[in-house]
Amino acid sequence: MDRRKFLIGGIALGCSAAASPFVTPVAMAAAPWDARLVVIILRGAMDGIDVIQPYGDPDLVGLRPTLITGKAADLDGFYALHPSFEPLRPLWNAGEFGAVHAVSTPYRDKRSHFDGQDILEAGLPDLSGGGLRDGWLNRMLQVVPGLEAEVAFAIGREQMLVLSGDAPASRWSPDARLRISPNARALLNVVHHDDPLFRDASEDAIAIAEQISIEADLAEETEAMMAESPMMETVSRGGEHVKIAEFAASRLRADTRIASFSINGWDTHARQNNGMKNGGRALTDTILTLKAGLGSAWDKTAVLCLTEFGRTARENGSAGTDHGTGGAMLFAGGALRGGQVIGDWPGLGDGDLYAGRDLLPTRDVRAHVAWVMRGLIGLDQAVLEQAIFPGLELGPNPGLVR
Amino acid sequence: MPFDPTIAAIRFGMGLSPTIAPPSSIADMMGMLAGPDTIAAEVPIPTYTDVYPSPLDYRDATRALTRARGTDGEEAADQHRDQVRGDGNELLLTNVKSELVRAAHTQDGFRERLVRFWADHFTARSTKGIERHLVSPYIEEAIRPNVTGNFAEMLAAVVGSPMMIWSLDQHQSMGPNSEAALGGGGGLNENLAREILELHTLGVGGAYQQTDVRELAELLTGVSANAQQGAYFRPERAEPGAERVLGVEYGGDPASIEDVVSGLRGIAMHPDTARHLARKLVVHFIAPTPDASLVNAMAARYLENGGVLMGMYEVMLAHEAAWAPAAMKVKQPFEFIASSVRALGVSRDAIMAADRRMIRRSVQNPMIVMGQAWQSPVGPDGWPEEEENWITPQGMAGRITWSMQAPENFLDRLPDPREFVFTALGPTPPEAVLFAANAAETVSDGVGLVLASAAFQRR
What we know:
The structure holds two protein chains of two kinds. Chain A is an alpha/beta fold. Chain A has 13 helices and twelve strands. Chain B has a domain of 104 residues. At the A-B interface, helix 5, strand 7, helix 7 and helix 8 of A face helix 11, helix 20, helix 21, helix 23 and helix 24 of B.
């Protein structure tokens, strides 16, 4: 048994037992499935109508005289891809990138980012229950007994409600370090003994920092793999999002099966084309970095990009769009059937819009997520409809998973 | 439960200090707050109106460079623009140090905490090209003088600040039937109106609808800002006619800034606003699940006093929940660092003399790892209150590493851990921390263990 596995085994134990975290070697696989699920939360409300443009709809140009520039290239005869997302074209052609259109969470009408994100990450129909203490990815972990904390990683500076809850999950940012002497470390255990929040966070910090320093070779391996990938030529290296994607890839190549992080900056109220340029760059860099960094594990990977809601069908007075309802979910990965835009297009005509202003959602986006989890991990319908996404009707299988 | 000076300093102030006595009573705290803002006079931060370099200085320098392109003056113009940029960066560094000195050396810690609370409530971020050194001057001008006054005045000052106007796109907005929109295109932008209702006043659970957002957005049309004039009113952009916000009609023709202000006053006095503000204060200062009777009493006092904030603070401090021994809140990263610097007794001069590298290494970079990049929250809702957001493995790695290493960057000679445990935690530190401070094998470990302890991190 190698030392890395030994230490990985120690982490979860460190969370639950007061004993030294490094006593019991655990060599079993971290999760009883092999597929990788990456959930990216696009905070700020991505404009699905702009990223995946329904140019076949005769009403589009009238609603968006400034935003529809005619530069978006065709995808399938009805939809076109925003130019800033062109780096993903090779993945589309290979059937590894696609979208689901005219979807949303059950959230309606108040169009608040924060409530919208809470509902998206909690996976609930609304916030009326007040029980906003865990996210749907965490509830998924809760139904699989005996998982280790490193099975799931929330990455980056932000809190990821989607992965928070009672099931153990790790959280780390690629720029964190830990420096403490062994003696002080032992005393810190004493100091935090009676405060579970501080005790667990400190123990996890120490365990993860050790694991990562020992895994420096893994990071080097990621770099080498990415250097060989021709698609990485378009990726601007060094941005924080690229570091996060590299880190995610290195974890997912090891024992991690679920990773989640955010890409912000989609709240394009004004001069949306600039926002799309930055957002497109960050998201395409991220997906291409994951593909390169995952190597052969990419074939078992599903990347889902979810946002809190869509944006108004009409552009506003400042070449942007305001908060709306229906939008798009982007997806990528070798485990999914890309090269297609799935969805029941409701149209953009006067009577078609939700509340006279937004794209009408024709399906709950949670149904697509649930079908992906069912296809990848084999979760039961009842578990998906009751425990993970309460109130969801799974409906027909959209066939996203290969 | 009785007033306790240690709790007063830690929960409602910037922590204990070896040289500054904690408040002696609630009356003492309220009296300092009602008196002059001494520390701001001693450690000045420029207001937005007075700041150099201003957005106009940037604009002029850039325009001068554009004009000078290809002429003999190009090099000088280029140098001048770099100088302006450098001066902005220099001021940002000074602002970080000034805020640290104020926190570490004020007697009136409650005021400092309230300024931070309201600045977060009215978060204006340096996005979309707004220079980062302008955030502190915005707070100094729109927030700080108003924390002891009337909430409606603060709201009006914020909405009238170029920083808020730019950061929530108000300068892009025009009434759909305004002269400007009919003449040249452009239209309404709801962003500022939405955040006023959702974040600043009624709160997301409040009794407002999408139509109120839209009507308020129309009422706000005309409010704009540019580099030259700062905030100003552009009647040609104002939506004609009156707007009905939360059932009350405001404005008419001709449109004026007074109509906007009276609309803001009306919203400020809505009972949902009173409850939202009261609840936020209690959640920030006392406990994540606030005592309902306390929130109601504070909201009632706010409404009775016509939106004056001091009465609401007084009700909060007079309630027994304020002095409960269990510390239910966690210090946010800046306040952790500032209260550590205060407990360590780092002098004003030592902080102000710190160079850029030192401030990066000991304040700004550690804050990023702890999850609070300097004045850069992710959204206009500011920093989260939940302790789970801060005390994560990564957040603790940052806090532990800072505790073990940074004090030595600030002080040549660290205090004796056996005494420091009392300086930092008061006369009755927890047994385990007392033990660890005595059992550490080095002075820096002993000081670090006190600072990294839950007892110090909580308030």
